[in-house]
Amino acid sequence: xxxxxxxxxxxxxxxxxxxxxxxxxxxxxxxxxxxxxxxxxxxxxxxxxxxxxxxxxxxxxxxxxxxxxxxxxxxxxxxxxxxxxxxxxxxxxxxxxxxxxxxxxxxxxxxxxxxxxxxxxxxxxxxxxxxxxxxxxxxxxxxxxxxxxxxxxxxxxxxxxxxxxxxxxxxxxxxxxxxxxxxxxxxxxxxxxxxxxxxxxxxxxxxxxxxxxxxxxxxxxxxxxxxxxxxxxxxxxxxxxxxxxxxxxxxxxxxxxxxxxxxxxxxxxxxxxxxxxxxxxxxxxxxxxxxxxxxxxxxxxxxxxxxxxxxxxxxxxxxxxxxxxxxxxxxxxxxxxxxxxxxxxxxxxxxxxxxxxxxxxxxxxxxxxxxxxxxxxxxxxxxxxxxxxxxxxxxxxxxxxxxxxxxxxxxxxxxxxxxxxxxxxxxxxxxxxxxxxxxxxxxxxxxxxxxxxxxxxxxxxxxxxxxxxxxxxxxxxxxxxxxxxxxxxxxxxxxxxxxxxxxxxxxxxxxxxxxxxxxxxxxxxxxxxxxxxxxxxxxxxxxxxxxxx
Length: 549
Description:
The chain has 21 helices and eight strands. By secondary structure, it is an alpha+beta fold.
């Protein structure tokens, strides 16, 4: 009889996992369809792809066709995963599959944690509805092909080790060894997770056991981090990824002020869910403290996860990329709080109102669906009209087109120009010449040049003073791009550069900036340059049909 019961429970669990996997697949596809079915991967994902392609080909950590060794990807482990996909000739599709598997495992991990904590199935269903109700969350965690899905899975697995008793020691050891490879933020989150793991020993009455294991896990974490740092110093010459130097301002006050603004906007988009979380948590927090509930530590883990984006100044992407891994935890806390309310009121309500239990559960589920649909913006109802990420896919496609057009025009002779770019993903996969990333993500000289890194987040490393050292012939940029910090409006620069298109044998590039010296050299190879704007001594004036301005 016991075996039959175990078999029945196992079958029930398998059916739930398969059902949820099907529902998740459909919702991810729906988010992809509503977005216009773009190419897989946003522009920054193509930077990962560029490094992956070169690693798989045995060229090392280099970007595009540049010889410079540089770590232009923030996640070391995700770069290796992408490289494995290219080595297996799966390319973007392989990365997409890994991202989706990470997404599914992340959700299942939170489901198990919630079920083990509250011991009921209804909160798990509420959490599932909550997760499937956010197309932005599903988008970021899947077909953007970014490292967010790996980051979110690591956060969930750390929570499982911390808050569930009797963890698997081998699996936990592997996890803490991998943590430093996921993202630089894990240098803070790893020790924080270990601190909560130690404190949770008092709740599970495993203090003596966890006291011993916490030293083991910290040693493994420190050894992995130390090995990674030594490798970075020996191979790249710097202890952190190049993206850290390009993105993060040296002013801590500036970072924190921008980071709090980022957090405030994230909360404002999920006012209903965050409001419920605050109300429920405020109501049950004294009870959790009194009974030493693990939910108190989950609240602490939630607050800790909010800190890294605040300390680094937030992010420029739509839909709050760095808080998408926190989104399931918000749903978990809300679902657990709703379960607590249900336990407090079910007997009195069912008895007083003579309501059928199934009808009541159905009403709760319908309420969860409605609440989930309105929890965070964009909801499914507003996803098409309130879209903030579709341009990232467009930029990737445009970059590939730019690279191909440059290849076609300059393939006839004269040599490939050194091209300066602002968006470095798509063009890095397509262009056959040397590329200089003017925003510094894939260029050590720009990333480490002195500057305040203030302006558009992740696009503020460029300083006009460093430009003469870069040897750029052509810039894929507008003639008055604010990201170039007024350099193109300097009369000295404008006297040496032109804005327009290169043309050869019916082929043409997009509008770009080209140095007059290179235009002259290209002219000897039969490549002409047609101006789209001219410098009038104060500004760039567009040239319209017929030559009139």
